[in-house]
Amino acid sequence: MTTNWREPAVLSGPTLELTPLRLGDAPDFLAALGPPEAAAEVLAHLSYGPPADLEQTRAILTAALADPDRMPYVQRRADTGEFLGTTSFYEINPALRAIAIGHTWIARPYWRTGVNTESKLIVLTRAFEGLGAERVVWHTDIRNTRSQTAIERLGATREGVLRHHRIRRDGSWRDTVQYSLLSAEWPAVKERLSAAILPR
């Protein structure tokens, strides 16, 4: 168990590898988002819109890397290295043994596959077993019902709605739905997620 919650690490699962985000990942990041219509759907509820080119992509990555309270990761296929999306730890609070997971997107062709399930198993294992977290949190836009369904499927508990919690990129106020998972709940969740990614 590491005592440095902000220590970058390569995280591996059966078919995925999560590596710390680098500025050099910009070309793969842009390519994975796909054509404009797919990118718009993938990033619909994130704080940034689809980048038009590499310069805008690098600006997005630079902002993520400059955030002192965020550890961004790339989700890749372990066998081919294909860039599948990103996810992050944020609101990192070792004193309270609490951490949030978010800033997540997965390339459109990989929706409704096992990528999100395996990725969550990897980051939750890191949080609870690698860092010794007591509490893991998710925040999602109240409009993002697909994300809420996915978080609930993990076994997280909906704690409530944070009103006017953030400002969307269109300037409107966002109400945020907050979920959490506690360390005592983790073994059952881990067993269920592990079973879900076993080959059939």
Which labels suit this protein?
alpha+beta, Aminopeptidase, single chain, about 200 residues
Characterise this structure:
It is a single chain. The chain has 200 residues and is α+β, with helices and mostly antiparallel strands. The protein is 32% helix and 32% strand. It has a single domain (11-196), classed as Gcn5-related N-acetyltransferase (GNAT) (Aminopeptidase). The protein is built from six helices and eight strands. An eight-stranded mixed beta sheet has the order 1-2-3-4-5-6-8-7, sandwiched between helices.
Summarize the SSE layout with pairings.
Blueprint: E1 11-12, E2 16-20, H1 26-33, H2 36-42, H3 54-66, E3 70-77, E4 83-93, E5 98-106, H4 115-130, E6 135-141, H5 145-154, E7 157-167, E8 173-182, H6 186-196
Parallel strand pairs: 5-6
Antiparallel strand pairs: 1-2, 2-3, 3-4, 4-5, 6-8, 7-8
Helix pairs in contact: 1-3, 4-6
